[in-house]
Input
Amino acid sequence: MADNKENTSGPSTAKRAKTSKAAPPSAASKKASGSGHGRVAGSQNYSESELMQLVKLARSVRPISMTGWSKVHQLYNAWAEDNNFSLRDVKPLKARYDKVHGDALVKLTGAGEMPELYRLALDAEDAIQGRTHMGVLDDEPADNEPADVKPVIKAENPAGLQKHISVISISSDDDESGSAKVKKERDGQYMVVKAYHSGAASTPPKKPSSSAKASSARSGVQDTRSLALSLTTALSPAAHEQRDAARFQSQLAAGEIAALREENSRLHDRDHERVEVISRLERDKEILSMQLDFVKSGHNVFDSNMHLSSTPGPSGHDQARGRRKSMERAEIAWDNDTDDWQMPHEPDDVSELLAPERDMFEDRSIKQEQIETDTVNAYDRPFANPVVHREPSPPAYNHHDRIGATVHPPELVTQHATPFLRTDNVAGSSKIGLYSRKQTLPMQDGRGFGEAAAFLTPSRSLNNLPPLTNVFKTPVNDMPWGSGTQAQGGSQ
DNA sequence: GGACAAAGGGAAGTAAACCG
DNA sequence: CGGTTTACTTCCCTTTGTCC
Output
């Protein structure tokens, strides 16, 4: 990408140095990229309306992580489909948004009019950052205020701070001549200090010499008169009325701003709730879809909340994280029938399809204890929904029975877990692993039991993948790609 | 034809969960 | 508690399509 080329000379220092060390396009990378990398044929450039929609969705969803971006992605594609635009992937969408925002920032510092798109992008970013969009509190003096302004007692009311102003005073501080300051006091209230020019008053009173006494006295009288006149003017009923009117206007404006702010917040909350609901429903749909896959592949699926109450589960924090992880996991299942990778498909009517399986299960005289034992053995910890029960019961099998880590009887694996291939996640990571079939079910612990028979090293393309059964039957040390354990970054 | 845009993917780093 | 593993993110590169 052109941006990336520009980035090469950009900041990001140590990390970039490290990555650039590994960055040179390896032969393997080049070989792999010869098949199918790059821009997809037929993909269109983003139109103005597509970008507008993207920015609006970003503003509405306020994505922070890839979870949020997947929501934006869903909503965007739904919109694109309705409006005959190209469907996009998460990563490109996020990248495009980042670019728009970056361009908006550049535009922000340049001259010329801010296009609507950029304005919205900045607004969206502000929303994401959780900032409010209220005007900046302007404490600076008015430009048209004359330098020799007479001492006027005036209640400054910047941005609706009226009720916080508790002290109004007159100052002759020369350093602050002509300027108004809003000082925050200890109790959190504000005091407005209005400075004014008055030559004699600006200097500290010195003891007057006898010769200068008369003129000084006259001057003092004049100053006093001037001040008195100003005070009289300021305190006159007309001025008072004018100030009241101004104050009323200010309060009115402040009230409107507060109401708008509240409305804005309320709309954001409502929007967020709706996105949550959509997310929940889609997750449910995915779970049901997976259940259906299992039913169709000859397994029994049942709701097992009742079986698993006795074993302690993961902490609430772990559970939450696990749920999040499993929700976000994208699955690609290996289909033995078609001998190809298969995306999860949507059920027609899940409850109806599952009913016979449930009935069949209920008819069997399987004791509760046996079920629980099998399940706990199989998954090593409880989880709520869904649970797969296999017959015959799967052998004890836990995370550390990984082929790539410890001993695992290959025959059992091939018998009880159908391997499938899955990319690491939807967030653009590149790791590809072989997983047991059980992994296709979302687990509450989030790690997914029975994962990762072996990782392919990144340089290996799928073409080098040995037959799956061989993979599972091959002792770890004889695997063509090594132990299968992922290096842990080398810096921890 | 060149510049740019879009998309896919590799490599590395990090946080957090899990287990013995 | 330390090691292991997974999920996630960012940076960077390459390929290929689109546009001027």
